[in-house]
Write a sequence for this structure.
């Protein structure tokens, strides 16, 4: 069975690379052939050991034409907060796959925000053209049903949960902190730093700022200077992030996948909410967070203290939650294989 997959792969975003690592590993175990549409094909081949073509090349058209199933996602592909180009590009892939009479799996995505008419129309059409549709949270499913009222879809889980290890490590002595550039964060930076400093001093933890994208480094450096903390130097892949998180006792996460990968290991998290997707995951995993706008150090310190003092209970709860989410994510891969199995001997959908 041949699968082509597209997402925000090959751009140095560790969250999206974690999604691809989970998907590619499961498909490999099932004996499927995966080709990835990537912004950096050579990097994708090196990191994941799978064939990859540039997402804007003629080879990408060949991958769509030759596959049995086109997998779109996961991640937050259909959103227009940054640009309308993203939903239009991913819609074009769905349309091309359907022109080639391929099966389309709209895979474990987070939907929105969609504030523009073109953005909503692009998402609606992509949903209607897909053969199977799953989302990583209930909020995305409800938005999809407003865009495509007759849609048959279900809530799955982020594919990064496919990376969950068989045995999780015991809590370590790091407070891993993941920040990202965002309007309003600068005004809250001293409040965050003050809470981190007080928390780490009280419980004798080492703060470590962990950039999940290259552009996270500058804001991480500015925050780290306020508390005289380390920022991780050098390149990181998904395996490297998991190794660092194995040494963590707690994660203070603004990047969604810092919280997700921590949860995979049973490491409790406190969220810095800049986007509804972070709030959604905190709800799913039974954890707490604060909006970055108007954040007060006393409130954040209280959440950090509470998470640390209750860390054993939270760890057990996360491991149970992680097992359930991993099973949901595995159902998605099973669905991809079932969809491939529906393709006739001509390969036509």
């Amino acid at each position: 069975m041949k699968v082509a997959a597209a997402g925000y792969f090959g751009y140095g975003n560790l969250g999206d690379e974690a999604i691809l690592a989970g998907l590619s590993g499961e498909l490999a175990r099932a004996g499927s052939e995966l080709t990835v549409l990537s912004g950096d094909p050579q990097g994708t081949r090196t990191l994941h050991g799978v064939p990859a073509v540039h997402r804007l090349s003629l080879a990408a058209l060949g991958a769509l034409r030759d596959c049995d199933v086109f997998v779109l996602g996961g991640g937050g592909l259909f959103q227009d907060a940054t640009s309308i180009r993203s939903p239009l590009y991913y819609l074009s892939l769905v349309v091309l796959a359907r022109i080639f009479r391929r099966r389309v799996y709209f895979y474990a995505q987070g939907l929105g925000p969609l504030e523009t008419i073109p953005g909503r129309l692009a998402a609606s059409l992509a949903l209607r053209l897909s053969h199977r549709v799953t989302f990583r949270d209930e909020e995305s499913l409800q938005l999809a049903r407003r865009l495509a009222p007759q849609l048959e879809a279900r809530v799955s889980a982020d594919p990064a949960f496919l990376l969950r290890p068989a045995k999780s490590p015991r809590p370590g002595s790091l407070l891993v902190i993941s920040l990202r550039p965002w309007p309003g964060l600068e005004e809250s930076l001293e409040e965050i730093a003050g809470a981190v400093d007080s928390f780490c001093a009280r419980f004798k933890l080492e703060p470590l700022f962990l950039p999940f994208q290259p552009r996270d480094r500058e804001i991480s450096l500015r925050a780290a200077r306020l508390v005289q903390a380390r920022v991780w130097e050098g390149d990181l892949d998904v395996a490297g992030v998991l190794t660092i998180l194995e040494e963590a006792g707690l994660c203070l996460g603004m990047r969604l996948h810092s919280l997700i990968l921590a949860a995979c290991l049973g490491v409790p998290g406190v969220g810095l909410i800049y986007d509804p997707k972070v709030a959604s995951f905190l709800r799913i995993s039974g954890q707490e967070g604060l909006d970055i706008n108007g954040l007060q150090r006393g409130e954040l310190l209280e959440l950090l203290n509470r998470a640390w003092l209750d860390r054993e209970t939270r760890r057990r709860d996360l491991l149970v939650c992680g097992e359930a989410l991993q099973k949901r994510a595995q159902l998605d891969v099973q669905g991809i294989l079932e969809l491939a199995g529906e393709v006739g001997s001509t390969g036509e959908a």
The first helix runs from residue 14 to 29. The chain has two domains: 2-162+327-341, 174-324.
